[in-house]
Design goal:
about 70 residues
Length: about 70
């Protein structure tokens, strides 16, 4: 299985995103725990590994913004 890893820093926090293929043109991105297992966070999908990782990273940016605003 092909895996891609992306490291993102969002609002000062480091995240490791792993992306795996579910179909030739469909990729699933999720956060990785230090033990290399997926987290309970819902997966994000895209047509490419970069697109799937970007969807997840964008959601994290929005979640951090909502947390700062008390939502």
């Amino acid at each position: 299985m092909t895996r891609h890893r992306f490291e993102e820093t969002i609002n000062g926090y480091g995240y490791e995103i792993e992306v795996t293929a579910v179909q030739p043109d469909r990729w699933r991105a999720y956060l990785v725990r230090l033990t290399d297992g997926p987290t309970a966070l819902m997966p994000f999908y895209g047509r490419t590994p970069d697109e799937a990782a970007r969807h997840l990273a964008n959601w994290l940016v929005q979640a951090h913004g909502a947390a700062r605003n008390g939502r």
